[in-house]
Amino acid sequence: MNILIAPDKFKDALSATEICHFLQKGILQTFPKAHCTLLPLADGGEGTLESLNSNFKGEFIYQTVQNPLFEAVSASYLYIPQNQTAVVEMARASGIELLIPTKRNCLKTSSFGTGQLIKEAIQKGAKEIFLTVGGTATNDGGMGIASALGFRFLANDGTVLQATGENLIAVASIDGSQVPAEVFNTKFTIATDVTNPFFGESGAAYVFAKQKGANEEGIQLLDKGLQNMAQVLERHFGINPQTLVGSGAGGGVAGGLAVLLNANIISAASWILEINRVDDLLEKTNILVTGEGKVDSQTWDGKLISQLLSKAEAKAVPVIIVCGTLQDVEIVTKQKSVLYATSILQEPSTLENALANTPQLLENQGMLLGKMLSSISFK
Q1: Rounded to whole angstroms, how far apart are CA atoms 258 and 271?
Q2: pLDDT tens digit string along 47-75?
Q3: Count of domains observed in the chain
Q4: pTM for this one?
Q5: What range does the domain containing 245 cover?
Q6: Which of 30, 54, 168, 228 has the fewest CB atoms within 10 Å, counting from its CB?
Q7: Whole-angstrom Cα distance, residue 2 to residue 284?
Q8: What is the chain's alpha carbon radius of gyration, rounded to the nearest angstrom?
C-alpha cells in the first residue's frame, strides 16, 4: 500500500517534518509492508521554506536582523541563485513563535526584520522575491518591511514614525524618495494563507490581533489604524488595499506591500501544492494521511488542508486526518474524501502535557492507523 503522509505543522509542538517522521514510525511498527512517502507541507507560515526547498534546491542565507520587538535574532531566507529568486518566510524574523506569550502584543511589534531579510536578498542579486506571510506576530500593515526598504512614514508634524501597529493611526504621509531603485525593480509576490481584507469585521485586526496579544481596545485601535493607512495609501498611490483579496494577511502586510511595491497576492496553499507536484503524487497514492494542529472552521476556508482534500477527492484518494484538536466534527464528516478523522488525544490532557507528549502521541496514532490500514484493501 502506498501511503502519502502530508501534514502541516502542529503549532507550538512539532514541525511538519517531525510529524511525518513519528507517524511513519508508528505505521511501520504495525504495517511494515506499507510504503510511506513523506511530504511535510506548510501554508506560508513556519516550515514553508523546508517544504519548498525539496524542489527549489536553493541555499539558506542567514542574517542577524530584528525580531518583532526590535531585538537581535538570527533568521534565514532561501536563495535560488540560478533563478535570481529569494523566498522569504515572514515567520523567520517576524513570527509569533519568536515571542513568549507574555511578550506578544501586536500594537508594539514590527515586521522590520523581515524587511531586513528582503533588503539583503536584493543586495545579493535577487530580482524576484516571494514573501510568505503566515504565523506573524505583527499588525503593522507592512510599515516595518517598507521602513527597512527605505520608506518613511510621517506624522502630521513630519516626525518619522516607528513602524509598529499602534502608529498606523498616526500616519499622515509616506515618503519613498529614499527607497533604492533596485527595490522598485524587483518583482514581489505575496503568498498568503488567508483571504481576509485589510480592515473591518473580517479584517486583519478583528480576526487575528487577539491571538497576537491585543485586547479589545487595542483591536479597535489597530483596525482604525489600518483604515487610516488604507486612506493614506490610496491618496499617495491611487489604490486602496481594502479592494484586494487577502490584503489583511500578515497583519496587513499583503495589502501594504501590494500598494507600495506593486506586489501580487497569491494563495500560498495553491502555490506550495503545485510546486510539490501533489497531483502527481496522488496518482500513485492509495491513501493520504494529513492534518494540522487544530482542525476547525478556518481549516476549510481555502487553506492548505482543504485544498489538499479537494485534490484527493478529484483523484478518488481516501483521506485520514490526524490532528491535535478536532473541532467542527460535523463539517469534517461532510468532506467526501475523508475516511477517518481523529485527534491524537485519546483522553483529557492539559495543553502543557499534550505539547510535551506530541511525539509519542503521534507514534501511537500511527500504530493504530497501521493496524487499521493493514486490514483494508484499496484498488
Answers
A1: 18
A2: 788 878 777 788 999 999 999 999 999 99
A3: 2
A4: 0.84
A5: 48-269
A6: 54
A7: 7
A8: 21
